[in-house]
Structure formats: structure tokens, C-alpha cells
Design goal:
This protein is an alpha/beta fold and 365 residues long. It contains 14 helices and twelve strands. The strands form three sheets. The protein has a six-stranded mixed sheet with strand order 2-4-1-5-6-7, with helices on both faces. Helix 1 runs parallel beside helix 8 and helix 4 runs antiparallel to helix 5. The longest helix has 32 residues. The two termini are 23 Å apart.
Length: 365
């Protein structure tokens, strides 16, 4: 698994242009008018990881299979969307289905591209979107209170706990703050996720800047980064225009183009890396002569659950995990060298998988 990221933002901020570039397709119509995206476009892209190429070269793998990330291009949200304005609540429902929100924010001036609010103000744009999501969450929670109160009065312990959590979320939302900031205990996390609130989704702000600011950003993006820091969110700078040009280049020409525009890597890499950090994801590998493959798990995952990402039978019948750290695998030039150097480990059910682990699972059928 990778993760599913919903691209949201006001109309005409560059969402569909960015989506097209990231997925290297023209599936989403990019046009200079609101609501050019009617149905959410979905695209899968490979997660770039040079470690996978290194492992495949050492093992002589016939095939390289990266993990993947799914981008969902969701139509532009406008003021009043929570009450049915624009194209209504159907787009809010699309957001509920994603793991994280990539909030594209316009951080460039261009008189040829209309801004739906008539001015370029990234913080105001962010607040417009977040207000609509908060209003939708308020409506959702308020509808649940009556039933929960009734159950709580009858002595239902679970309902009482849920009601307390809902009321805390309501207090925060009524104060103009997103639900993800609510203070909660570890044991409440599952119940919190079950509320399926829009403002509970982790947020990555994607600052869409002009080409000249693609490396360091500009004054607009600096304000977004400051806001992200205050919220505990993430932010990246991307030029959707540059990304759209990179997307159609032959691979052999990409480095020259990146050098010419002063970039070390495509914006896609930065978006994915920030997304992984936001969701606390990491990658482990399985390597052999047939294939070298990357797998995505949540940080803190134990070995049996990591094995279950490959197949549920691996988790059910887990015996042990043969493990080599990526750096050791490369330094020792493969599994045999790692064994000889004492870098080959047998890990049990309590082992927490580390980023870059090269693993082979033993299990009972």
C-alpha cells in the first residue's frame, strides 16, 4: 500500500494542472474556469526511491516494483460548499475517502488567470476551504449528539465515551479550529477516526508558485509555511507549470531540465516525501532474483503486521523475519555478504520494522 491523497483547493489554483503533472496523464481537464473537474479523477504513481534500484542491481532482480501513491483530484471548493454552493457536498464526501489532504494554494500573481475571490491571498484561501470543512464537520457531529445522549442516559458506557469525544470536537470546531487538534488519549484514537471528520485529515499544503520561485518559494509561500508550522501540518513548494513540463520529458532529458531551472528533483518527490512524513509512513523491501519490491507501512509496525501487507497468510502464520538493514545490504553487496559479516538478523513477533529494512518472512501455512 502507499497512501491515498486528495488534491483540494479553490478553483483555478492549479489543482488539475498539478494532478496531470504528478500522474503524467491528461486525465484531468486543466482549464481557466471554475469546476472544470466534475468527477474526481484518480491516478496512481510510483513512489520514487533510488534505494530500490540499488537493491535490484545487487540482487540481479529481473523486475523492479515500487510502492504507489494514489492522487484524487477533487473539484474546486468555494465559499458555501458545505451548504450546497458550487457543486455541493458531493466533493466533501470525496474528501472523506482519502488518507490525507494535499491542499493546493495559489502563491503566484498572474493577471491572465482568474482568482475566484478576486485577489491572491493564500491564507484567506486556506481559511475559506477550512471553514467549509469545519462547517460540514459541525453539521455531521450535531446530528449525532441526540442519539448519543439518549444512549448515554440509558447507561451505555461506549456511547458516553463517544459523546464526550464528540463534544470536545464540537467545542474546538465552534472555536474555529480543525478537529485534528483535539486533545485525545491513545485509546480514543480508533473512536476518533471512526467519526470520519474532514478536518481530522492530515494536511499537506502545496504552495503553487511561479517558475522563478520553484526552489526557495516566495513571500506568499512563506506565510503558508508559517501557518503549517503552527498547525503541525506540512508544506512544500511546487511550480505546477514546471511539473507539467517535466511530465512530458523523456527520462534522459529530465536532469538537464531540472539543472536549467535550478531544481534537484521533481516536485512529485517532495510531495511524496512530505506526505510520508505527515502520515508517518516508511518503506521496507523484499529482494530476490525475480523482483525487488517496495512496501509501505506505518511507522511502529511490528514484523507480523508488515508481513500481512504482502499477504494475510504471512501475518497469520508468522514465524520470523530474516532482516538486513539497507545500508548493510549495500555495503556487504547482498544477502550472502551480510550473513558473512554478521549483519543478517532473525527477528521475531515483537520486532518493529525500520525504514529500509530488507526482509524475508518465514511463516506456517
Amino acid at each position: 500500500m502507499g497512501f491515498k491523497c486528495g488534491i483540494v483547493g479553490l478553483p483555478n489554483v492549479g489543482k488539475s494542472t498539478l494532478f496531470n503533472a504528478l500522474t503524467q496523464t491528461a486525465a484531468a481537464q486543466a482549464a481557466n474556469y471554475p469546476f472544470c473537474t466534475i468527477e474526481p479523477n484518480v491516478g496512481d504513481v510510483a513512489v520514487p526511491d533510488p534505494r530500490l534500484d540499488s537493491l535490484a542491481a545487487i540482487a540481479g532482480s529481473q523486475q523492479i516494483i515500487p510502492t504507489r501513491i494514489t492522487f484524487v483530484d477533487i473539484a474546486g471548493i468555494v465559499r458555501g460548499a458545505s451548504k450546497g454552493e458550487g457543486l455541493g457536498n458531493q466533493f466533501l464526501a470525496n474528501i472523506r475517502e482519502v488518507d490525507a489532504i494535499a491542499h493546493v494554494v495559489r502563491c503566484f500573481e498572474d493577471s491572465d488567470i482568474t482568482h475566484v475571490e478576486g485577489k491572491v491571498d493564500p491564507i484567506a484561501d486556506i481559511e475559506t476551504i477550512e471553514t467549509e470543512l469545519m462547517l460540514a464537520d459541525l453539521d455531521s457531529l450535531e446530528k449525532r449528539v441526540g442519539a448519543l445522549e439518549k444512549k448515554a442516559r440509558s447507561g451505555d458506557k461506549e456511547a458516553k465515551e463517544s459523546l464526550d469525544l464528540v463534544q470536545r470536537c464540537l467545542t474546538l470546531l465552534q472555536d474555529g479550529k480543525p478537529a485534528r487538534l483535539v486533545e485525545r488519549k491513545i485509546e480514543e484514537e480508533k473512536a476518533f477516526q471512526m467519526l470520519n471528520l474532514l478536518t481530522a485529515k492530515p494536511v499537506l499544503y502545496v504552495c503553487n508558485v511561479e517558475e522563478a520561485s520553484a526552489h526557495d518559494g516566495n513571500g506568499f509561500s512563506a506565510k503558508v509555511f508559517e501557518r503549517a508550522k503552527q498547525e503541525g501540518a506540512k508544506a512544500v513548494v511546487v511550480s505546477a507549470k514546471i511539473e507539467s513540463e517535466i511530465a512530458v520529458l523523456p527520462p534522459e532529458d529530465m536532469k538537464d531540465y531540472l539543472d536549467a531551472v535550478g531544481l534537484d528533483e521533481p516536485g512529485l518527490n517532495r510531495v511524496i516525501r512530505a506526505g510520508y512524513e505527515l502520515l508517518q509512513l516508511l518503506t521496507y523491501f523484499t529482494v530476490g532474483p525475480k523482483e525487488a519490491r517496495a512496501w509501505t507501512i506505518t511507522r511502529g509496525t511490528k514484523a507480523p503486521a508488515a508481513a500481512g501487507v504482502i499477504h494475510t497468510d504471512f501475518e497469520k502464520g508468522f514465524i520470523r523475519a530474516e532482516t538486513i538493514a539497507f545500508d548493510d545490504y549495500v555495503a556487504c553487496k547482498g544477502e550472502a555478504g551480510a550473513r558473512d559479516a554478521g549483519k543478517f538478523r532473525l527477528e521475531g513477533k515483537d520486532y518493529t520494522v525500520a525504514d529500509g529494512d530488507v526482509m524475508h518472512f518465514r511463516f506456517n501455512t
